[in-house]
C-alpha cells in the first residue's frame, strides 16, 4: 500500500506540473544540469516552430544555433547564453526582438537546492502589445505637451490685451518646469522601456501640477486664501528639487533639518520653490551651485535658496518683487517673484532677497 501511495503521489505531481506548464502564458523550457532540454510546454514548441522529437534531450546549445535566423540581434542572446554557462547561479531577464516584429521578454532562473545546481528554467513571454502601448503613451505625452504649449501661447496672446497685465506670462513661465519633466519622462521611457511606470507617474504628476497652475486663471484679480493642510515641508522641497529640470553643469545641495510638519498650502508652496529654483538655474548660464537650507527657529521655519549666479543690480533689489518681468539672465523673463511674495505672505510669512552682482543671490523665506 505504501508503494502504491508513493506512485500515486508522483503521478499527481506530474499532472500538476503538466497543468501548470500548459496553462502558463509563457513559453517554457527546462534544462538539466548537463544543459539538455528535458521539460517544455506546447507554447515553447509553437513559438519556435519545433516538434517534441526535435526538442527532447537536445542540447540547449544546438537549439540556440537553431533560432539565430529568427532573432533581430542574435549576438545579444548568444552573449547571455555564454554568461549563464559561466555562472550557474545567474538569474535575470532580457528583451529579445524577433525579425517578425514581436518582442519577447526572457526570464532565466537557476534550479538550486542546498547549494547544488540541477539546471535552469527559461521563460519566454510575448510583450509586443505592451511595447505598442508604450508607443501610444509616448505619442500621447507629446501631444499633451503640444496642447499645453498651445494653450499657454493663447494665454500669452490674451494677456497682451488684458488690463490685469502679467498673469498669463507668469503661468507660462511656471509651466516650463512640468512640461520639461514630461519631455524628460518620455525620453527616459524611450531609452529604457522598463521605466515605463516611472515615466507615467512623472507625466501624471506634471499634468496635475500644470492643471493647478491653469486653475489659477479662473480668478486673476486676487490670490485666494491658502488651503492649509498639515504637510511635510521637507517632502515638498525635495520633490521640487528632484523634478526641476536642470542642466548637467548645475548642482543642487540640500540641507534640511528633521523638523518638517507645517500647516501650508502644499501645491502653492511647491510652486514657490519651483519658481525660485528655476530662476536660480537660469541665473547661472555657465553653471554653478544652488544650496537649499531649512531650519526650525521657535515656531517658524527659515528656508534659504542661494545660487552662485550673475546676481541682481543693487538699484533693482528694492522693487524686485513688484517687477514681474525683471530678469537676471541674458535671455528670458524673470517671472514668478510677485507670486512667491503674495503666496508666502498669505501664509503669514515673509520673503527677502540679498544679492551681490557677479557672485550670486540668496532668497530667505
Shape: elongated
Indicate the low-confidence ranges by residue numbers.
324-334
Terminal CA distance reads 84 Å
Strand order of the largest sheet: 2-1-5-4-3
Q: Please, what is the CATH homologous superfamily of the largest domain? A: Histidine kinase-like ATPase, C-terminal domain
Structural class: alpha+beta
For the record, the CATH class of the largest domain is: Alpha Beta
Number of strands: 12
- Count of domain modules: 3
Oligomer: single chain
The number of helical runs is 11
Q: Quote the beta fraction.
A: 15-25%
Pattern of helices and strands = HEEHHHHEEEHHHEHEEHEEHEE
- CATH architecture of the largest domain, please? 2-Layer Sandwich
Overview of this structure, please?
The protein is of the alpha+beta class. It has three domains: 2-126, PAS domain (Beta-Lactamase, 2-Layer Sandwich), CATH 3.30.450; 130-219; 229-364, Histidine kinase-like ATPase, C-terminal domain (Heat Shock Protein 90). The chain has eleven helices and twelve strands. The protein has helices at 2-23, 42-48, 52-55, 60-66, 74-86, 128-161, 167-191, 196-215, 233-243, 266-282, 337-346, and strands at residues 27-32, 37-40, 92-97, 103-113, 116-126, 229-232, 250-256, 261-264, 288-297, 300-307, 352-356, 360-364. Strands 2-1-5-4-3 form a five-stranded antiparallel sheet, with helices on both faces. Strands 7-9-10-12-11 form a five-stranded mixed sheet, with helices on one face. Strand 4 (103-113) and strand 5 form a beta hairpin. Helix 10 runs antiparallel to helix 11 (337-346). The longest helix has 34 residues, at 128-161. Mean pLDDT is 78; it is low at 324-334.
